[in-house]
Amino acid sequence: MSKDFEKKVDDFIDKLQNFDKSIFKRNVFNPWAEFDESDISPNAPKIRTSNLKKYLLNQKGAKYVLIAESPSTGARYTGLAMTSEKVINANNLGFEYSSKKSADKKYVYELTAKKVWDEILAQKEKFVMWNAFAFNISELKGRWFENPTEEELKQNLGILNAFLALYSEAKIITVGKTAQNALQILNFKNFQSIRHPSNDFKKEFPEQFKKCIG
Predict the structure, then answer these.
(1) Rounded to whole angstroms, how far apart are CA atoms 158 and 161?
(2) pLDDT tens readout for residues 60-93
(3) Which domain covers residue 139, as residue numbers?
(4) Domain count, the chain
């Protein structure tokens, strides 16, 4: 593994961990720097950070970047976008668990994570995943599904650009309309868009996914 790339990954993670979230006007949770009572231990942020570093290093040279809008429950406990503990366990991905439930092997589940990984694992190409907004947003305790505002997206732009710089040759694919809108707000031009799997009423997501990489 290139030491130069590893240094860039370390710098990116340092930027994540030390991001000043006080600039946001509502409750934002940083899974790589914070923990709460739903975590397995105070060591949970280190677990998620270790997962993220391992993942980013493994995806060096990725051909495609999948960008969702913002992290929900899966990323909250794995530190990895569109990845749940259940996906890690079911596919033997080699990452660790950080939720309190995982101590009883009751791994956190997320349907979007399952559908996205089902498609990724069926392909030969290398993918890397992230979110237009990096952190979990919570209006209510334990709820991690709020959408970032236009202001929040712009305040987070430095994080997104730092991530994309790690995979500068990769093609960007947004997952869902809100992720597409987020990148348009941030003035990105060169990307493709596919339907979000949670709204996959007619199985468009797998078809559109394959078409984008075909």
Answers:
(1) 5
(2) 999 999 999 999 889 999 999 999 999 999 999 9
(3) 3-213
(4) 1
